[in-house]
Amino acid sequence: MKIAQFVCGLLLITTSVQVLAWGQNGHRIVGQIANEHLTKKTQKALLPLLAGDLLPEVGTWADEMRSDPAEFWQKHSSRWHYINVAEPDKFDAEHYHTPQSKDDVKDIYGGILRCIAALKDKNTPLAERQFYLRFLVHLVGDIHQPMHAGHAEDRGGNLVEVKFFGKPTNLHSLWDTDLLESQNLSFTEYAAFIDTQDKQLIKTYLTSTPADWLKESMALSEGLYQGAAPINNASPDLSYSYIYQQLPIAQQRLLQAGIRLAGLLNSIYDPRAKPGLTALATKP
C-alpha cells in the first residue's frame, strides 16, 4: 500500500511540473524577497493567515492544490493562473470589474482583484482569508511570468517545443523552471543575490498596479519567442546564449514580483504604508 501511494505521489509530481509557474524555486524566491520587506505590523497581521507557514512556503500552494479532487481545483482553478489577450494594447483594466466570488474569476487579473478585495474586507471569514492570501502570493508571482500572458494558440508556450542543452522541453517550462535551475542556487541564495535596497528602484517598481504588471508581461512575452522558432523543422537547441539574453529578464521579474507583493500586503495591513517607497520595509 505504501509503495502504491509513493508511486501515485510521484506521478502527481511529475505531471504537475508541466503546469507550474516559475517552478517551486521561482515562487519561493518571490515569497522570500517579499518576506524581507514586510513591515512589522504586516508581519503580525499575517500570522493567523499563514498559520505557522512563511510566504516562501505558501507561494507554491496554489499549484500543489491542483491535485485536490474537489471540483474547484480540478475544473476551475487553472484559469486563475494565466490570461490570453489577442491584442494586449486593447486590454482595458478600467472596465474590468472585480469578481464577486472565486467562482466568478475568469483569469489571473480577476483572481488578483478578487484576492485583494477579500483580504481588505474585514467580514471575510478567516478560512477564506487564508485561501485568498495563499492564492495572492502565488498569483503575484504568476502575473510577472511573461508566458502566463502569452499566446492562446500555443497555450502560453506550452506547445512550443525546444531543447535546453539537448534535453527536450517547451518554452513555457523553460521559463518556469529550467532558466532558474541552470544557476544551481537555492531559493534563499537566489533571493539574497537579486534582492535590492535601492530606494529609487523600489519606488519605481511600487509605482505601478496589477494592470501594469500584466501589461509588462504581455509586452515581454513577445520577445521570449525569439530564438525558439524551429530550425529546418527541428526544435532549436537553446543553451548559453539564451541564458545570457533571457535570465536577466527572469531575475528582474522575480525581483519586481517580490517587491510588489510586499508593497501590496503592506498597503492592505499597515495603514502607515503609503503608495510608493513608504509601502516597503527596507534595511538601513
UniProtKB/TrEMBL annotation:
It comes from the Bacteria. InterPro entries: PLipase_C/P1_nuclease_dom_sf, S1/P1nuclease. Coiled coil: none annotated. SUPFAM superfamilies: Phospholipase C/P1 nuclease (SSF48537). Residues 1-21 form the signal peptide. Keywords: Disulfide bond, Endonuclease, Glycoprotein, Hydrolase, Metal-binding, Nuclease, Signal. PANTHER family: ENDONUCLEASE 4. This is S1/P1 Nuclease. It comes from Cellvibrio fibrivorans.
